[in-house]
Amino acid sequence: PDVVFKLVLEDSINGLIIDLCESYYDTKAYMYLEDSLALGDTTEIECNDDFCTASHGEPYTSYIEMGHQLYGGVSAGTYYIVVDGYGSSVTSNQGDYVMHLQIMQPPPDLVYNVYKDGNLVAGHLPDSVLTFTDSDATLAGSHYWVTASRIMELSSDRPWYGPPDYEFPTADFDIEYVESDRSNELAVAVDNTPPAAFALVTPPDGESLDITEDNIGGSQIFAWSASSDPNGYELTYHILWETETDTGMFQIMDDTTGNAVLVPIQVMADVMSSLAQGGTYIRDWSWTVYADDGWDIVEASNGPRTITLDVGWYLGINDEALVPDVFALHQNYPNPFNPVTTIRYDVPEQSVVTIDIYNVLGQRVAELANGIHDPGFHTVMWNGTNMSGHPQASGMYFYHITAGDFRDVKKLLLLK
């Protein structure tokens, strides 16, 4: 048997949805207007059959959607909803039907759209919204503008739609939001807030480090407190060490995203050796750290600090054995390297020493030393360039020493 519901609308509404999609047996739905029935017209104003399938599997359920704001919606009045039940492929004409009634909410008559660099980033904003916040704005800046869209009927003359039959017009009928030209154009960029203040922690200012046999295999830590970026960008820390030489300021820089770096003391000894001039084996170095958010750079509040390095032992100055016993070529450090590596070699007697760099094809690409050397412990540095000063490609190279009758060759690896 059919089930009949009486629906009384005291006021007109935008539209009505009759949803039986989750019913447990086959349904067909009709809707009649009481005024038409009183005149003997039993033609339904809406009908639907086999529209949807329930989530639990029933395939032949119904759904009706009627009314539209441009047609005045659904008028006030008395209506009858008829649910017609059939045999079910799932429940064999048994079970419950489920019906939801819902008033259709009219779309806004006027909405706003926000564009960023030509791309829509916020569409159909109600006209009550007066501001828009772009959470993805960047320091690079963007071009914004606004358009307005009004809902309009884009159609030719159409037949009447409404009581008593609510026959949906089939004439040329289209409803769309029609967008205006753009306005409120402006270019906007986020104001960057520099990284927060931070400070150097260790080593303390004025620290002295004697490089000895006991610590040559260790490392010296350089640490600082953490900064932070109010804009949420990742910070890079630039560490700068520098010392004054006869030819100007000698600088070494390193980058990290952490709050400390460990510098091998062997590297410090090699750098000091390469700078040793006229017996200068003690040097004052200044060091500081900069926090960089990609836009602004802030130096540590208590930088720079100084550290004094004494490489006398390493150079043999503080040792009874001031001269090596034999010729020797040591492995470069660091290896692999980028951009600079240090090569140590020992000369026990005055000799003409040449040190050359060769590529894997056997071609000489650089000359690091060529001349008379006094007895002692020597170092030379290679920055990965050829004899014309052009950078060499990543790969394996060989460094070769000739000193009197002494010959030796070792491998090194340049990585970029």
Give a description of the structure.
The chain is mainly beta. It has helices spanning 34-38, 265-275, and strands at residues 3-9, 16-19, 27-33, 46-49, 63-66, 77-85, 100-103, 110-116, 119-126, 142-153, 175-179, 183-188, 200-202, 207-210, 219-224, 236-245, 248-256, 260-264, 282-292, 297-299, 305-310, 328-329, 341-347, 351-358, 364-373, 376-382, 395-403, 406-414. The strands form seven sheets. Strands 14, 16, 17, 19, 20 and 21 form a six-stranded mixed beta sheet that branches. Strands 8, 9, 10, 11 and 12 form a five-stranded antiparallel beta sheet that branches. Strand 27 and strand 28 (406-414) form a beta hairpin. It is elongated and about 130 Å long.
Gist?
The chain is mainly beta. The protein has helices at residues 34-38, 265-275, and strands at residues 3-9, 16-19, 27-33, 46-49, 63-66, 77-85, 100-103, 110-116, 119-126, 142-153, 175-179, 183-188, 200-202, 207-210, 219-224, 236-245, 248-256, 260-264, 282-292, 297-299, 305-310, 328-329, 341-347, 351-358, 364-373, 376-382, 395-403, 406-414. The chain starts with a strand and ends with a strand.
Q: What is the number of E strands?
A: 28
The helix count comes to 2
Mean pLDDT: 86
Cα end-to-end separation: 83 Å
Gyration radius, to the nearest Å? 42 Å
Q: Report the major sheet.
A: 6 strands, mixed
- Overall spatial form: elongated
Order of helices and strands: EEEHEEEEEEEEEEEEEEEHEEEEEEEEEE
The secondary-structure class comes to mainly beta
> Uncertain spans, ≥5 residues at pLDDT below 50?
none
Instruction: Classify the helix fraction into a percent range.
Output: under 10%
Portion in strands: 35-45%
